[in-house]
Amino acid sequence: MRILVTGGLGFIGSHFIRHILATKPDVQVVNLDKQTYAGNPDNLKDVEDDARYDYAKGDICDAAIVDKLARDADIIVNFAAESHVDRSIGKPGDFIRTDIFGTYTLLEAARRHKVKRFVQISTDEVYGSREKGSFNENDLLRPSSPYSASKAGADMLAHSYFVTYRLPVVITRSSNNYGPFQYPEKLMPLFITNAIEDKELPLYGDGSNVRDWLYVEDNCRAISLAVEKGMPGEIYNIASGQELSNKGVTRLILKLLGKPDSLIKPVKDRPGHDFRYSLDSAKIRKLGFKPKVSFEEGIKTTVNWYKANRWWWKRLKSGEYLEYYRKQYNL
Ligand code: NAD
Ligand code: TYD
Questions:
Q1: Would you say residue 287 lies in a domain?
Q2: Which of 9, 168, 201, 236 could form a disulfide with 33 if both were Cys (CB 3.0 to 4.6 A apart)?
C-alpha cells in the first residue's frame, strides 16, 4: 500500500507520517512538499532514513510532478496548504493558488489514476464563527478569512469530484491543533517561545475569542481512522471538546513557565476575527475516535517540548520571520 502525503514537512503532516510509519508496517509513504517557510525537514529528521519513507520536493500546483507521484499511489492525503490566517489577510493570492488550485491539481491526478481514496484535510474555520452550540457536517459554510474561504473552496471542489466522477473523497475538518513542531507563528508555539525568551505575547483584542484545542497526535489518529473507515463522499469533524479562551490559554502558558502575566501585550484585533469555533464530532466518534490527550496533559507536554528543543525554533525565529513580526505587531 502506497500513500502520497502532501505537506508532510509541515506541522500536522509530519506527525501524520510519523504516526503511519509507526502503526502501519506494510505502508510506503511518499511526501510531496514544496518546503515553503512552514515546511521544515527537521520535523521528520527521525524517520528520514526509514526505507518506507520517500521525500519529493515539489509543488502541488505542478501537474507534472503530481501526476508522476499519483500514478503509483493507492491513497492521497492532502495536508499541503498555506495555513496561517494572518498571512492570508496580508497576501490572499498564495492561499487561493495552493489551497484551491493545488487541490484541483491533485484531484485531477487522482481521477486520472483512479486512486482508491483521496483524503482532504480541512478545518473547522470553513463553518465560520458561532457564539453558542456546535457545527455539524451538514451546516452551511460561512468562511471569514481568505484562508478559510480557500479551504472551503477546496472542500467543495473535492466533494464535486465525488459526486461527478465518483472519486472516493473523504474530508476531515479539525479544530485548532497544538503540539511539538508547530511553526512559531500560531498562538501556542508563538506564545510559548516568546515567554521562554521573556518577550511580549501579542494577544488580539480582549483575548476572549474561543478555540477548541486538539492535541496533534489525536488528530492524526482520527485522520488515520478516516483514511481506513471513512465513507466516500462523507465529511468528518474532528474536535476534542476542550474549548478555552485565548486569555485562558495564554495565562496557563505563563503559569507553566513561571512567567508573569505582565508579558501579555494587548494588540489591535485581527480584522474579521472569528469569535468562536465549535464542532460536533459525533460522526468521527461513531467510527471509534476518542481523544486520548487531555488539554492539561497536552499543554504540559507541549510547553516542555519547546523548552527542551530550542534548537528547533531558535533558527526559525530569525531573519525574515523577525521582520514580519515587527511589522505585524509593532514589537
Ligand atoms: P503548516 O503550515 O505547518 O504546513 C503546511 C505544509 O504544506 C508545509 O510543509 C509547506 O511547505 C507545505 N506546502 C505549502 N504550500 C505547498 C505547495 N504549494 N505544494 C506543496 N507543499 C506545500 O500547516 P499545518 O498546520 O500542518 O496544517 C496542515 C493542514 O491541516 C492544512 O491543510 C490546514 O489547513 C489543516 N488544518 C490545520 C489546523 C491547525 O490547527 N494547524 C487545523 C485544522 C486544519
Ligand atoms: P491561530 O493560532 O492563528 O489559529 P486560528 O486563527 O487559525 O484559530 O490563532 C488562535 C487564536 O489566537 C485566534 O483567536 C487568534 C489569536 N492570536 C492572538 O491573540 N495573537 C497572536 O499573535 C496569534 C498568532 C493568534
A1: no
A2: 9
